[in-house]
Each structure stands twice: as structure tokens, then as C-alpha cells.
Amino acid sequence: MQIIKTIEDVRRSHLCTGCGVCAALEPQRFKMLNIPTEGHRPQVRDDAPETTGRAFSACPGIQLHHDYDTSDARLATSMRDAWGPVYEVLEGHACDDEIRFAASSGGAATALALYCLQERAMHGVLHTAADPDKPYCNRTVFSRDRASLLAATGSRYAPSSPCAQLAQIADAAGPCVFIGKPCDIAAARAAQKLSSRLRENLGLTIAFFCAGVPNTAASLKLAAQEGASTPERISSLRYRGNGWPGKWAVEYQGDKDSSERRELSYAESWHFLQRHRQWRCYICPDHTGEFADISVGDPWYREVGEDERGSSLIVVRTQRGLDILRGAVAAGYLTVGGNDLSLLPRSQPDLIAVRGNLWARLHTLRLFGAATPSFSGFSFFPFWWHELDFTEKLRSILGTVKRIFTKRLRKPAGLDSGSAG
Ligand SMILES: Cc1cc2nc3c(=O)[nH]c(=O)nc-3n(C[C@H](O)[C@H](O)[C@H](O)COP(=O)(O)OP(=O)(O)OC[C@H]3O[C@@H](n4cnc5c(N)ncnc54)[C@H](O)[C@@H]3O)c2cc1C
Ligand code: SF4
Ligand code: SF4
Domain 84-214+275-347 has what CATH class? Predict the structure, then answer.
């Protein structure tokens, strides 16, 4: 049984999600590096002071604890066990056509953020965009206007550490929006408990649904397969957007100095990239942003028509989220249909089985002495018992045993060198 007591233990035991909150809470001790075959990972700085324990207490890699008020009468009780706190589920899209087109789904994340900037006097939006110097990598940006928000639209299936820059929210002159992966939002929520400035200034949290983050090596491998022979030749890499769901598109300098462009469908690129997700994503209990005020995903409950314009699935999870959503609709930033809770399970039917699988995965990891995170406030066993048939139950255990050995989970993650990320 591996005992995890420090951030270094989390990183070594393959549980790091790459959120970066450790670098925000103990900046003199940790910085984030991009390890191409893993993801963004914390590294202890030279001459770092002793740890204060603050980073570890907020780390989502090792722990996730739901502490929302389960007696809140506005929560949909039928949704709680499988989907966390839910007030409403709606389908909608940005009213701004340019945002809707450029965005991943229907641009709900960007439209809500823009509304907060322009109509709620929020100070800025902390989120993620392509790194102009290395377009196959991400960097964290603090957007203060529409142009900057628009430039960062579109999902990037690559590592990001937006929490490492939470100081920009804490130090801001007023409330801000934070957009991130579900684990980023959980980390920011935990960090809020340690910082009064973050409690004051986290004005809205938006998570997107997340099946996992592929590493940088995967992006480069796919780009190379499509002709971009070296990373230096890549001038642009988009994973989605500019249509719905949009195309994976790489632009690069060809062998004869020509400008080349290659595209793959969303399904083709995800099929390749998803095989290179970090381990922690395989045991993630929160693929739909349960710690956010609002979470957004794709309304996959129906076929996407040819040339259909973008659409978002919007899950409202808090009263603050509901107030802001209604404000954005009234002010003409967002168009939504009626509340229909069934849209969520119909769009993500596999996630029920994922919950069941997780019960077996966590127990098998523990039994074999591999590192196991602690999750409280989630329900797993009933889904394993009722939703998986006998073969699936067996596979949930044997598949984990196999992964413990093939992914060498009982051995420390390599500390190979990376680049600042
Ligand atoms: C790693 C990953 C996994 C995903 N898995 C699923 C899934 O399983 N099911 C599903 O329905 N949808 C998934 N999505 C897509 C997600 O549903 C859409 O991004 C979401 O619907 C938001 O769409 P939008 O049009 O509102 O966003 P937009 O208006 O285009 O805004 C997207 C926002 O996401 C931020 N962002 C983009 N990439 C990253 C990143 N790597 N890290 C942090 N922030 C980022 C941008 O800064 C931007 O603010 C995934 C996206 C990513 C990046
Ligand atoms: S999950 Fe986040 S807080 Fe934990 S070690 Fe990784 S980057 Fe740091
Ligand atoms: S699947 Fe879970 S752990 Fe992995 S990046 Fe997404 S939210 Fe984080």
C-alpha cells in the first residue's frame, strides 16, 4: 500500500492531474513542467523552502470531497448519485455567431464569460489557449475582452495547468471567471478554502465535460503522422471548433518550405489521442464538472447534422450559476431551450458504467498496493452492482489488474526532464 503524504508522492504515484494548484499555493516550492509523455507536472525548485502542506491539502489528484448542501431543495435529487449537484440541464448556444462558430460546441463557455466581463463588471477570465511559440502546447491566459476570449475558443486536447495562475484571480481588482477541466475547478474550490482573496474573487467557475487529457507526445505523434515532421515546423494546431464539432487541423512548413495543412475529423483525432490519456483520468470520478457553478459539454444525445451550427449542453449546478445563466439569456448573450434533466444521461450514457467501473478499479488498486485517491460524497457501488452485467463486473477487476502491470503503476513515475509549462 503506497502512502501518499506530499505533492511529490502524488506526482510519483501517477495520480497527478496536472492542475497546477500546488504551484499556486506554494509558488516558492513548486513550478510546473511539461513532461511530453505524461502531462504538466510539478517540480520542486532548487533551494525550495520546506512544504507548508497547503498545496497537498488542495490537490485534486489525491482527494476530491463533495461538500455541497445535499438538503438544498432546488437540487434535482434524481440526478445526485450519478451526476452530482444539478439544478437545471439545458441545450443552448452563444448568440454571437462568431463565437458560436469558433467554439468547440455552441460557445456557451465563452458567451457566459463575455457576459460576466461586459455586464457583471467582472475583472477577467482565467483560462487556456494555444501557446503561440509552441502551438501544440497550451498556456494559461487572463482575458479581459472579447477578442482575447474569442482567440481561446475551442477545446484543446492537450495538458493545461490553469490553476498555477490562480494568483491572477486572487490579486485582481474584482471578481473573475475561471474556466477549466473538472479537476481544475475542484482544485480551485479547494484553494478557495485556504485563501480569502480567492473566496472573494472567484466570481464564476465553468467546467467543461472531460474524458481525459492526452499528453503532448500524442499531439506531436499525430501531427508527424500527418506530415509535420518536426515540432518546430508546426505553425498552428487546432483540435476542434470552427464548425461543430469541428476538425483537428495542423498547419506546418513542408519539406520544400511550402505551407501545408492537414485535417482529420474530430472522431479520427480523438480515437488516436485518447489512447494517450494520463493515468489519473482512468480513475476520475468527475467527468462532468461537479464542482463548478456551470458545466458545459456536447449534446451528443442526437446525431449532429451535416454543417449544423454549434450547440452546447449546459448543466447548472449552483444558485450563482443559475443567476448568471438567466442574466446571460436575458441580456442576449445566450439562447437556451427548456430545462430537461434527461439530456445529461442521454448525452453521456457511458458515464453510468464508468461510475460502476470505478468502484472496482479503486478497490483493485488498493488490493494490489497501487496508489489510490480518496473520493467522498460520490456514489460508486450501486452502479457497479446494478448497471454492470457479470462479464463487465469481471472485466472491471481484471482490466485494472492488467493495467497495474502494463502501466507499471506500482513503480514511481519517471522524473524525466520537461520544459516549463
Ligand atoms: C481535454 C478535453 C476533454 C473533453 N472531453 C469531453 C467529453 O468527454 N464530453 C464532451 O461532451 N465534451 C468534452 N470536451 C469538449 C467540451 O465539451 C467542450 O469544450 C465544451 O462543450 C465547451 O464548449 P464551448 O463551445 O462552450 O467552449 P468554448 O466557448 O469553445 O470555450 C472552450 C473553453 O475551454 C478552455 N479550454 C480549452 N482547452 C482547454 C484545456 N485543455 N484545459 C483547460 N481549458 C481549456 C478554453 O480556454 C475556452 O475558454 C472535452 C474538452 C477537452 C479540452
Ligand atoms: S494534481 Fe495538481 S496539485 Fe496535485 S500534484 Fe498534480 S498539479 Fe499539483
Ligand atoms: S478526466 Fe478527470 S482527472 Fe482527467 S483531466 Fe479530466 S477532469 Fe481531470
Answer: alpha beta
Does 7 sit in the ligand 2 pocket, CB within 6 Å?
yes
Strands (E), 287-396: 294-297, 312-316, 334-336, 374-376
Q: How close is the Cα of 338 to the center of ligand 3, in Å? A: 29
Q: Nearest to residue 14, comparing CAs of 398, 284, 297?
A: 284
For the chain, give every domain's residue range: 84-214+275-347, 349-415
Residue 283 has pLDDT above 80, yes or no: yes
- pLDDT (tens digit per residue) in 213-249: 999 999 999 999 999 999 999 999 999 999 999 999 9
Enumerate residues 6+ apart whose C-beta is below 8 A from 323.
Answer: none
**212 CA → ligand 3 middle, Å:** 5
- Strand ranges for 301-345 from DSSP E: 312-316, 334-336
CA angle, corner 87, sides to 320 and 374, nearest 5?
90
CA proximity to 126, closest of 166, 69, 68, 77? 166
Which DSSP string do the residues of 114-177 spell out, in sequence order?
A: HHHHHHS----EEEEEE-SSSTTSEEEEEE-SHHHHHHT-S---S---GGGGTHHHHTSSS-EE
Secondary structure (3-state) at 396: helix
Q: Is 219 in the pocket of ligand 1 (CB under 6 A)?
A: no
